[in-house]
Design a protein that fits this description.
Elements lengths: L12 E4 L5 H8 L19 H23 L6 H17 L6 E2 L2 E4 L2 E4 L2 E3 L4 E5 L10 E6 L2 E3 L1 H11 L5 E5 L3 E6 L9 E5 H6 L3 H11 L15 H37 L4 H9 L4 H23 L10 H10 L2 H7 L11 H15 L19 H4 L5 H12 E4 L2 E4 L9 H9 L4 E4 L6 E4 L11 H6 L6 H22 L4 H6 L3 E3 L6 H19 L6 H14 L1 E3 L4 H14 L1
Parallel strand pairs: 6-9, 16-17
Antiparallel strand pairs: 1-11, 2-5, 3-4, 5-6, 7-8, 9-10, 10-11, 12-13, 14-15
């Protein structure tokens, strides 16, 4: 049976670590990225690129069916079958990798790496593994001297260890990954295609993207330098476009805050809220803080829903469906595109407040655990007790969930958004100074600088000394300040290094959006996961579990700006 698309991107292809943003993958899929003519892919003028992809789709299906028919046989060498009958034909015949060659063990210094193949004249590592081997599960076969490695970890370490290697591929026949040099090792980064899903569920659109992004012409070195290949050019271009997407997100958050601020002020049912503002028991700054916390809640829920990380592990399908259809933000995101739902009723907000209380205390009927924290009732007491019309709430959701790009409406992809990108949003929020105009009816909420008072813009940012820290500086601080402490702690407590590491306390006295604390938590998590798994490259479940332990026990932040602390906490929640 054919699997339906999730409606916001490919079903069988995922990006981890921001290697290529989802928006850029969409550009690749629609042939809008650079170097995507037929000639760029080795297709002559006599043939249509789309027709050629359709022909390769049929060839790939024949290869997959032939391999699948033999997989269950107990009389065959499954690894040789996977490599020789499926992966090598797929790459050479379908994906245009013309020079895959067997490789022996690769040595870097005193370390050894049992690689299976190389490509492009030996400039790209290729690891083909048996179907039953998971890409992120450590295995002695891929390790050395009694230590284990995962297939993904082996390729990643090779790329990190050799200056002449930048891109590589790893596959077990069921999934295939493009991996890039990533020295930090604090967060996995790859583009993955689920081959079983593509061919088992006949996802042609996903195959098109696989063919366009994984084709051999994308990695072919330019004048012997794989660092100049098309894939690397795409990555550089996508980083530039990612900055523009962040700017659109900043605008969206500001518009959302303005819509919410005005929506609550102007609702006839909110006399108590207006009286508190008029009497000064609620200041404009405190009102703005509650609005920000509400937006943080929405950002958290968008991310958790799209990553399928919100529900308790034992939540059944009925509870998940009830949440999705009655309370989930995905439902509101869809309604936000329907102008007929922009009415003056408050039913959508009241349903959202039910969701917030469920996340505060837990709701088994919806499959929701008790999260507390950001959803504590004390975080937004005035707003939780107020009403907002559907028209204003949906306008706010629309600003957070959608943006215009080249004249078309595009969906913000929170599933693959890097947590650090919240830091960029934070940087812009510090420039906002809230103001409420009570001189005329209806009251209006906005920011200093919306009209003529531009001189005050940015004053909060300057007074609090708050500035967004670039990743290159954060990584250098991790290497110079944290790495020596981790190494020394593990050596001095060789009997139980894990407990000793979890006893460390890492504090950022000017935490801002948490950029340093996120990187520190990831670095600590990698080390603890290594100890727990006995592998230099622990799998993702082990790393994620260790990350939760580190965030719970080791990470602390302080900031003069209370809104920064709120955002830092939200970022750590999303990451863990």
């Amino acid at each position: 049976m054919r699997k339906e698309s999730n409606g916001h991107g490919p079903t069988a292809i995922r990006v981890q670590g921001g290697l290529l943003p989802p928006e850029f993958l969409a550009a690749i899929a629609s042939l809008r990225a650079p170097h995507q003519s037929g000639n760029d892919y080795g297709v002559t003028k006599s043939f249509s690129l789309k027709d050629e992809i359709a022909r390769y789709w049929r060839v790939a299906n024949d290869l997959y069916d032939a391999w699948a028919s033999l997989r269950g046989s107990s009389s065959v060498d499954r690894e040789k079958l996977c490599v020789n009958k499926w992966l090598i034909p797929l790459f050479t015949t379908v994906l245009g990798w013309s020079d895959i060659a067997p490789s022996g063990t690769i040595r870097i210094g005193d370390r050894s790496f049992p690689l299976t193949h190389t490509a492009f004249g030996g400039l790209a590592p290729v690891l083909f593994a048996a179907t039953e081997r998971e890409l992120e599960t450590a295995d002695p076969r891929f390790g050395e001297e009694g230590r284990r490695r995962s297939p993904h970890g082996l390729v990643q370490e090779l790329l990190n260890g050799r200056d002449d290697w930048m891109w590589g591929v790893v596959s077990n026949g069921r999934k295939v990954r493009l991996v890039r040099d990533n020295p930090s090792l604090t967060r996995p980064a790859f583009v993955e295609a689920d081959l079983e899903l593509i061919f088992g569920e006949q996802l042609y659109a996903d195959f098109v993207l696989l063919w366009l992004a994984f084709h051999g012409s994308r990695l072919r070195p330019v004048e012997g330098d794989i660092g100049r290949c098309i894939l690397e050019q795409w990555r550089n271009r996508s980083q530039e476009e990612g900055q523009r997407a962040l700017e659109r997100l900043r605008v969206g958050v500001t518009e959302s805050l303005r819509a919410l601020g005005n929506g609550f002020l102007r609702n006839p049912a909110n006399e108590a809220l207006r009286r508190a503002l008029a009497e000064g028991t609620l200041t404009p700054a405190a009102y703005f803080e509650e609005l920000l916390r509400l937006v943080y809640r929405l950002l958290f829920l968008f991310t958790a829903e799209e990553r399928n990380a919100l529900h308790a592990p034992d939540a059944d399908s009925r509870a998940r469906r009830l949440y999705r259809e009655g309370y989930g933000l995905a439902h509101l995101r869809t309604l936000a595109l329907r102008r007929r739902r922009y009415d003056r009723h408050a039913d959508l907000w009241r349903g959202m407040t039910v969701l917030f209380r469920a996340l505060e205390t837990g709701a088994p009927a919806l499959g929701l655990p008790a999260l507390g924290g950001l959803f504590d009732a004390g975080h937004c007491p005035c707003l939780d007790a107020a009403d907002i019309a559907n028209e204003h709430l949906l306008e706010a959701v629309r600003s957070l969930a959608w943006f215009r790009s080249d004249g078309a409406l595009s969906r913000v992809n929170y599933r693959d958004m890097g947590t650090e990108e919240l830091g960029s949003v934070y940087e812009s929020l510090l420039e906002l100074v809230p103001c409420i105009d009570t001189a005329s009816a209806p009251w209006s909420f906005g920011f200093v600088g919306d009209a003529a008072e531009t001189a005050a813009k940015g004053s909060a940012r300057k007074l609090t000394g708050s500035y967004y820290t670039p990743a290159v500086l954060v990584n250098e601080l991790i290497r110079s300040a944290l790495d020596p402490v981790i190494g020394d702690t593990a050596r001095r407590h060789a009997d139980d290094p894990r407990a000793a590491l979890l006893a460390l306390r890492i504090i950022d006295p000017a935490c801002g959006s948490g950029h340093f604390l996120l990187a520190a938590a990831r670095r600590m998590a990698i080390e603890i996961a290594r100890l727990e798994t006995g592998s230099d490259t622990p799998d993702e479940p082990a790393r994620q579990h260790a990350l939760r332990e580190v965030v719970r026990h080791c990470v602390y932040g302080v900031d003069r700006n209370p809104l920064a602390v709120e955002l830092c906490r939200t970022a750590l929640w999303i990451e863990s």
